[in-house]
Write a structure and sequence with these properties.
Strand content: 5-15%
Distance between the termini: 84 Å
Number of domains: 4
């Protein structure tokens, strides 16, 4: 057996790894980094950036990678069968006494398995890992060979793309060029890799991940619910209004007639105090009203930001499909989703999770279902977004204080009730967890406040 077959197979494997690295790096490379390099005078970065920005050019670039991978794999397999397998067969005959036909078939299988393992490890996994860890370097290093490959395979690319278009046409699908986009899952994977590689701090990673998930959150999941909304009735006496305003930590308060479903605007506490200080009385609240926009409860959080920007408002009233008021949402709620709750010296302390020494845990009824999952030992799914809301939804009624209930395998006791909401619950144990949550094994984290949030309603 000569050395030439191994040199050829090594070259074909290297060719395959080149195309794999080029394809993955073209997907993972950050355009902002290429823009910076292009501005610094890198002609290669400028050329690659032009390819990535053009859908048709990127389609050809990726197609060339795929053709190169396929050709190198097929040629390597055929060449190995014709050379290495043919030379290995006589060795099997002499070593194991196999029949020539059996030896040839056995050598073909051995070569196929060995070559597959070699191509998977050296031709795919290693270059893929390098491309994802060093996308800019890899993309720039492979650009020139890829540019030549695009020219070399131009006829194949046009033929194959044409055939693909013909196959898709009966289904009403119009093939388009590659677009340099990532799905949220892919972006999350890239963020995780960046954190593991040390290019992102844990804090920056957490903020970016929360920002990525913001588009999946709805206004209903972020709002201050109706039961916690602080508002003024329009006909309230002046003395009560003044006392209400002075005791409130909020800068603006919603105003309603008769009930919360008939909100007519907001009033600035600064305006109320200033008029009282200058005139000694407070005019009818209708004269001090400022408009406040309304948003549907299923509006996504990222669209809420744009909506508030367009309306030049920091807050909005959340309504359901029938126009009933469900709560109030503010830009602070979005910031809290990204950066965590923002403290306020005028705000009462947030209710917190309270693990007990015997393994039980007290949870606020306003805690979100996502935050409650580690404490419950099971994920509650339903239309409600909070622990208290889920309990009411499953029972079909408001529970009573001290009532013992089981919800989705979780045994709990209702500790506190407001007239319309669940205040706190005591979780005993869950049938889905191996043992009750213990204070020394879980880290308490802050929950949604039972009290109105800082300036969310003002």
């Amino acid at each position: 057996m000569t050395l030439l077959p191994w040199i050829v197979l090594g070259a074909l494997t290297a060719m395959m790894s080149l195309y794999v690295a080029a394809e993955f790096s073209a997907v993972a490379v950050q355009r902002s980094q290429l823009v910076r390099l292009a501005r610094a005078g890198s002609r290669r970065a400028s050329s690659l950036l032009a390819v990535l920005k053009d859908g048709v050019s990127l389609d050809r670039y990726i197609a060339a990678c795929q053709i190169g991978i396929t050709l190198s794999t097929l040629v390597a397999g055929a060449y190995a069968q014709a050379t290495v397998a043919h030379d290995l067969a006589p060795m099997l005959v002499s070593l194991f006494g196999l029949e020539p036909e059996v030896a040839l078939s056995t050598s073909a299988v051995i070569v196929l398995l060995a070559l597959t393992a070699l191509q998977v490890v050296l031709g795919e996994l290693v270059p893929k890992s390098l491309a994802l860890q060093f996308p800019e370097r890899t993309a720039l290093a492979t650009y020139l060979p890829m540019r030549w490959s695009v020219s070399l395979y131009r006829g194949f690319i046009k033929l194959l793309n044409g055939n693909a278009a013909l196959l898709l046409k009966p289904f009403g699908i119009e093939p388009g060029g590659h677009v340099h986009v990532h799905s949220p899952v892919e972006i999350q994977l890239l963020l995780n890799e960046s954190r593991k590689g040390g290019t992102l701090s844990p804090e920056a990673h957490a903020r970016l991940e929360r920002g990525l998930l913001l588009s999946t959150r709805t206004v209903r999941q972020l709002m201050v619910p109706r039961g916690e909304l602080v508002a003024i009735e329009a006909s309230m006496p002046a003395d009560d209004i003044l006392r209400f305003v002075l005791e409130s930590p909020y800068s603006r308060l919603p105003v309603y007639r008769k009930d919360l479903d008939h909100l007519i605007g907001t009033v600035s506490t600064k305006d109320v105090v200033a008029l009282y200080a200058s005139r000694g009385d407070i005019p009818p609240l209708e004269q001090l009203l400022r408009p406040i926009p309304f948003v549907p409860e299923n509006l996504r959080a990222d669209r809420l930001v744009r909506f508030l920007q367009e309306r030049k408002s920091s807050k909005a009233i959340v309504v359901d499909e029938f126009g009933g008021v469900q709560g109030i949402v503010s830009i602070e709620d979005v910031l809290g989703e990204l950066f965590g709750d923002i403290g306020d010296e005028l705000k009462a302390p947030d209710a917190i999770t309270e693990p007990l020494a015997d393994g039980r845990v007290r949870l606020p009824g306003s805690m979100s279902l996502e935050e409650a999952e580690p404490w419950l030992g099971v994920r509650w799914d339903g239309h409600a977004s909070t622990v208290g809301g889920h309990i009411v939804s499953r029972l079909g009624r408001l529970p009573a204080e001290g009532e013992h209930i089981e919800i989705d395998g979780v045994n709990l006791t209702v500790l506190d009730m407001t007239p319309t909401t669940v205040g706190r619950v005591l979780v005993h144990e869950s049938r889905h967890s191996s043992s009750p949550a213990r204070a020394d094994s879980l880290t308490p984290h802050r929950a949604e406040s039972l009290m109105p949030k800082s300036d969310r309603t003002g």
